[in-house]
Prior knowledge:
By secondary structure, the chain is mainly α. 83% of the residues lie in helices and 0% in strands.
Amino acid sequence: MKSLRLILSNPRYFAPSWVFASINILFGTWAIYIPTVKEKLGIDKADLGIAIFFLSLGVFVIFPVAAKIINWLGVGKATWYGILFSCLAALLPLLAPNYYSLLGALFLFGASSGITDIAMNTLVTEIEKEDQQNFMSASHGFFSLGGVFAGLGSFLIFTINNPALHMLYAVVLVFVINYIFHKHYKHIVAAPVEKEPFSLKLFKPLLVLGIVSFIVMGGEGAIVDWSGLYLQEISMAPETLIGTGFLAFSAMMTLGRFLGDSISASIGSIKIVALGASIAIIGFLFVLATHTYMAIAGFALIGLGFSVIIPELFRIGGTVKGVDSSQGVSFIAGTGYSGFLLGPVVLGFVAESFSLKYTFVILLVCTFIVLGATYGLYRRRR
Length: 382
């Protein structure tokens, strides 16, 4: 909690941390309206999976040029312009009059989120180096906190009764606070670090960690994109509760990220990953029980379990013998982000071909794989 107090007491640290929260406020507000957009445009789950793929495509297209853009603008300005781009792009999917315009809107939303994501992480890294203060983990906690704010916004669905207007309120909130605080980071200039080419031989010790990262972040992405639809179609939840699965997931994810460091120091990285996977397994079993309130509790447990895994994978990957720490962290981040973006797309086709419930059965099995992988990592460490 020390880094959280640091952020809240100093605008130099709060400013970039609020960018993390901002991205998830916008993304989460879009997520709670996915069922509404699906009904409005009359598309099926496979079509929705393709639409979400275009969101992913926007991110992947921006990745190769993001470093040049950030280097050209400076990381502070790139973060600020990324937020402005994201605020504009976030409105487009909920204004889309047809399926093809939805694809284009989600592509732009993905591209804006991608450039902002890279810029804000580079910005925090640069400030940490300048000030010798660590607050990256807490900044990611703010990302989860943004999901909580978006989830709370689901209770305003009937009050506002207009998805685009709801998003506009979220955009105004994000823009105003960022406008007030962006002066604390806009002047910072730092080029992103160039990564070395991928080598299978070099990264062989990290393959297990990469698979775990892909699964866990794929699960996170699936819950962001499909939890509302699951509560609506499988649990038959009333509309007022459709967004509560995402809210519960985000709230417990936030709590876990703010508390995880102290638990890790007590039991170790591998054991906390195993503990997180075990908690998530229980959560998936609750979700598969289908009862509305059990499913919501299940999403909360999954958020708590998953919250500690990715930070610990970074910690383990940075200490693999024979692998440079920056290369290890980069590999885990890349595989994880791929899972976050591609997992929901693949699971969308499973949901359309069979049932949305089967997608969560697959995620349960994959979480058992994560738990098994921790046993292999423990034996390797011994």
